[in-house]
Amino acid sequence: MGIREVASLASVSTATVSRVITGAAKVSSTTRERVLRAMQALNFRPNEAARTLALAKKHKDNPAISPAATRILPGHSGSQDNPLEGDLP
Fold first, then answer.
1. Measured between alpha carbons, how far is 28 from 40 in angstroms, rounded to an integer?
2. By CB count within 10 A, which of 23, 31, 40, 85 is most buried?
3. What pTM did the predictor assign?
């Protein structure tokens, strides 16, 4: 069961489900309740591994992230000398 099924059952977008999961303030209390009921009905539990991977992909090109962190991100082509350029050894 995934976020798409929750969104479909609650008649909202996947972005709205994501906002409910993260606790964003941009969701009305009525919509938040509808999403939470859908999550409960589907026995949906957020996947922390997927969230961690999504955040890593989102920030892989951000120079504010430490060079050590960029070496372990999927799809990164940094080098050992300069993790923001070149290919990994």
1. 18
2. 31
3. 0.58
13 Cβ contact partners less than 8 Å away, ≥ 6 residues apart: 7
Distance, in Å, from the CA atom of 40 to the CA atom of 24, rounded to the nearest integer, reads: 19
DSSP letter (8 states) at residue 75: T
What SS3 state is found at 57?
helix
4 φ, ψ to 5°? -65, -40
| DSSP 8-class letter at 85 | S
Q: Is 56 exposed, middle or buried (0-12, 13-18, 19+ CB in 10 A)?
A: middle
Residue 73: what pLDDT? 53
pLDDT in tens, 6-48: 999 999 999 999 899 888 888 999 999 999 999 999 999 887 7
- Amino acid occupying residue 71: R
All residues at 6 or more sequence positions from 18 whose CB lies less than 8 Å from its CB, including other chains: 3, 24
